[in-house]
């Protein structure tokens, strides 16, 4: 059973999401929160698998609430999906930097909401390659000067190459084709990279690749 926490300051939004999710045999909404501070409290109390977190909330916004959840070692298994009105607003990139595992727009189809919760619950990032490309194109150019991370020192040259391709928005199959590897090998490389650099999922791997200068916007055609 996938346990979900809903965090949104609009009661009707929470009610709509609860109705959709509770209708699934493998998903249960275990708690709700009306602001970011409550979201952090409820996360610590219920230890959900997934938090659906609105960005704009009173008392404490979704970005800071996400940071606090991700930073809490007791909540290491909790994954956050950011809910946003617009697919590519400033908050989305900030949310990924804060540790969110992906995002959904609020008017998403019910099937996409359900799929997103399941994807993140199993430990994957809800960040499709096509969305990665657009997101990075829009916001990565605004980053400060790259700051090489010592975490990358643990990577082999091949792993750095794979990480850069992930950051460019390539799927595991596309990485395999470009590097003449099997899809299974490409997937293994990605998993090993995340373990070595301490990334929670693919989304954090992408952010670190750009912030460290391993990848830059537009470098891969």
Structural commentary:
The chain has 221 residues and is α/β, with parallel strands linked by helices. The protein folds into two domains: 2-126, Rossmann fold (3-Layer(aba) Sandwich), CATH 3.40.50; 145-212, Winged helix-like DNA-binding domain superfamily/Winged helix DNA-binding domain (Arc Repressor Mutant, subunit A). The protein is built from ten helices and five strands, in the order βαβαβαβαβαααααα. It has helices at residues 11-22, 36-46, 62-71, 90-98, 110-121, 129-139, 157-167, 172-179, 183-197, 202-211; strands spanning 2-7, 27-33, 50-54, 79-84, 103-105. α7 (157-167) packs across α10 (202-211) and α8 crosses α9. The longest helix is centred in the C-terminal third of the chain and has 15 residues, at 183-197. The relative contact order is 0.11. Keywords: DNA-binding, Phosphoprotein, Transcription, Transcription regulation. It comes from Allonocardiopsis opalescens. Residues 3-121 form the Response regulatory domain.
Question: What's the SSE blueprint?
Answer:
Layout: E1 2-7, H1 11-22, E2 27-33, H2 36-46, E3 50-54, H3 62-71, E4 79-84, H4 90-98, E5 103-105, H5 110-121, H6 129-139, H7 157-167, H8 172-179, H9 183-197, H10 202-211
Parallel strand pairs: 1-2, 1-3, 3-4, 4-5
């Amino acid at each position: 059973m996938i346990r979900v926490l809903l965090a949104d300051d609009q009661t009707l939004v929470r009610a709509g999401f609860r109705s959709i999710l509770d209708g699934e045999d493998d998903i249960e909404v275990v708690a709700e929160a009306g602001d970011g501070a409550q979201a952090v409290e409820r996360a610590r109390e219920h230890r959900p698998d997934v938090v659906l977190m609105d960005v704009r909330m009173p008392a404490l916004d979704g970005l800071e609430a996400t940071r606090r959840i991700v930073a809490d070692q007791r909540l290491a298994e909790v994954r956050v999906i950011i809910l946003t009105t617009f697919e590519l607003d400033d908050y989305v990139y900030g949310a990924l930097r804060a540790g969110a595992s992906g995002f959904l727009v609020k008017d998403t189809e019910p099937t996409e909401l359900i799929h997103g919760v399941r994807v993140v619950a199993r430990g994957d990032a809800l960040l499709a390659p096509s969305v990665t490309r657009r997101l990075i194109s829009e916001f990565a150019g605004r980053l400060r000067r790259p700051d090489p991370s010592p975490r990358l020192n643990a990577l082999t040259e091949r792993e750095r190459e794979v990480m850069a391709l992930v950051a460019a928005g390539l799927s595991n199959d596309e990485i395999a084709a470009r590097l003449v590897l099997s899809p299974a090998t490409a997937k293994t490389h990605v998993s090993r990279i995340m373990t070595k650099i301490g990334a929670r999922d693919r989304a954090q791997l992408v952010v670190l690749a750009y912030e460290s200068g391993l990848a830059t916007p537009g470098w891969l055609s």
